[in-house]
Amino acid sequence: MNRRDFLKFIGMASGATVLSSCGIEKSTEKIIPRIIPPEDPDYIPGEPMFRNSTCTECPAGCGTTVRIVDFNPIKLEGVENHPLNDGALCVRGQSSLMRLYHPERLKTPLLRLASDGQTQAMSEKGFRAISWDEASQLIIDKMQVSAEQGKRNTYLSGLTNSSLSQLIDEFCGSTNVERLTEYETFDYANLREANRIVFGRDEIPAYKIEEADFLLTLGADIIETFITPVNHAVQLKKAKESHDFRWFHIEPHVSMTGFKANRKMTIRPGGEIYLMVYLVNVIITNKLDKNSLPSSVKSRIPQVSDKEVVQNTGFSEADLEQITQALINSRNPLLIAGGVSTAQSTGLETAVLAGQVQWMLGMTDTTIDFGQAQNLANLGTLLDVQQLSDSLSNNEIGVLFVTRSNPLATVPGNLGLNDNFPNADFKVAFSDFVTETAAECDLILPLSHSYESWGDVQPHKGLTNVIRPVIKPLYQTETEGDILIKLSQRYANRQSDRTYEQWLKEKWTAELGQADMEKMIERGYHRTEMPPVSPNISAQSINRFLNDAQYDSAPSGAVLFALPSIR
Q1: CATH of 110-185+377-523, one of 2.30.130.110, 3.40.50.80, 3.40.50.740, 2.60.40.1220
Q2: What is the pLDDT of residue 5?
Q3: Per-residue confidence (pLDDT) for residue 4, from 0 to 100
Q4: Residue 497 class from Cβ within 10 Å (0-12 exposed, 13-18 middle, 19+ buried)?
Q5: Contact 60, 229 (CB under 8 A)
């Protein structure tokens, strides 16, 4: 191509570009009207705003900073200097925006269709959309029919460590609904029961990993699912940076937690109880205890030989000696037992013995704090689920409310809940998706996402985290609090425009005052210093338990574990 032809070509191409640009579609332009100013005074078109809220993907209650552009939340991070997560956020928390924008979120109340008096099979096609007014009236009608028939109306929720728990109590009290103990997949039943037996406290304390110089974790996957994994990870980082810190992790399987420890030791499944008996006896025999066990308790600790311990744990004598020396030679040791090691047949015995080790080595005065215990006061166990299943089997339940929980997908099959669930006359699910449990209900009420809602979370004593809306509801959804307030009003034949936001702010103001409430909303949390609690040991309770304790040998052969997972 010569120079003249090249210039002609460039000219034609440039002209075509200009002509095509004149036909730009106006739909690609973004016009921001200024006739009505935005409600948020911080809003600048295209510039990010930041609001503090709380993650609700798991019960831990980490603080989140939401990045908002043009009133759309687009990114999450942890709240800096937050008492729990101090700027960190796990993968589940980071992905919670996907739940907000998920295309399969429920958008309106759904009522199961009936054919010839029989409910249809589990399928989204078996439901039809109805209005909130229809749904509310239907619930009231069913509750009244149930009461006339002498049946119980019951309310089953997931873990509710928040002000919402008080509102649920008010709703149940005003409508004659029985509130059941809360259901959570990871209920830490054996660990709570062990603390009740040893210390007289049915609680899970705060573990001060940051202040420990040696950490021994037995089965507890502290950076995956155990209690507050992000908080544990933050504390581990600070401990490693501030002082000489070592961490041994003992478990019968392979986990991400084990890979992060200084030393990961694999124990035979069921051998944990022998390791705890060994440690208790070593501490007693060598008089290494800072707090002495009562003589009546000491006499009930079984005597096992080193050979039995080696055989049942799979550890060598050198391994046992290393664990013992690391534990007793540290200034501030910390033992955390949990996870699969306290969930098996001898899990309760293991947890009780671990509590005695914690007491004898003075951990309850230094690295274990019941003053900041987890807020699990209303959390039940599988025994409570069994009672519900029995009531359903006996056709005693009229209306059954199930909210923020998916028991049909997680409750063990031998409890019979899946088989007996249809026996409730009318089942109402509060959910944001059609879960396995919601799909078996007669009515599904769509819940707003936490970033569309007002609320709070009180993960442990002395800490309240704020849940605040950062986007207007995308669909015709409601918060659980608003649903209960409206149902209460309709049940009493009263009309009111009161909202859950108003109820909540009135409660906060009464507790904190107006100024501190506003600071809490802005900061995202309010912290009250709680005095440390050093529990006393309960010899009588321990003795009763040890009299009937089982010390089974570790099973031989392959063992199948159902492991907790962050997925």
Answers
A1: 3.40.50.740
A2: 72
A3: 73
A4: exposed
A5: yes
Contacts of 304-310 spanning 24+ positions with Cβ under 8 A: 304/274, 304/277, 304/278, 304/551, 306/278, 308/274, 309/274, 309/275, 309/277, 309/278
Cα–Cα separations (whole angstroms), residue 537 to 292, 355, 448: 10, 9, 45
Q: Which residue type is seen at 292?
A: S
State the pLDDT at residue 28: 44
Rounded to an integer, what distance in angstroms lies between the CA atom of residue 427 and that of residue 440? 8
Alpha helices, DSSP H, located in 428-471: 436-439
Q: What is the DSSP string of 55-68?
A: --SSTT--EEEEEE
Q: What is the SS3 string spanning 125-193?
A: HHEEECCHHHHHHHHHHHHHHHHHCCCEEEEEECCCCCCHHHHHHHHHHHHCCEECCECCCCCCHHHHH
Spatial CB neighbours of 317, under 8 Å, sequence gap ≥ 6? 306, 310
Q: What is the mean pLDDT of residues 289-293?
A: 94
How far is Cα 251 from Cα 341, in angstroms, rounded to an integer? 7
What are the tens digits of pLDDT across the range 136-162? 999 999 999 999 999 999 999 999 999
**What residue segments make up the domains of the chain, in order of their start?**
48-100, 110-185+377-523, 190-375
> Please, which pLDDT band fits residue 15 given cuts at 50, 70 and 90?
low
Diameter of the chain by CA atoms? 108
pTM of the model: 0.89
Q: Would you report the helix, strand and coil content of the chain in percent, each value rounded to 5?
A: 40, 15, 40
Encoded tokens for 98: 């996907």
Match domain 48-100 to its CATH number in 2.20.25.90, 3.40.1550.10, 3.40.50.720, 3.30.1050.10.
Answer: 2.20.25.90
C-alpha 306/C-alpha 486 separation (Å) is: 65
Task: Give the contacts of 243 (CB within 8 A, at least 6 positions apart).
Answer: 213
Q: What is the CATH number of domain 190-375?
A: 3.40.228.10
How many C-beta atoms surround the C-beta of residue 143 within 10 A?
22
Most confident of 33-42, 330-339, 547-556: 330-339
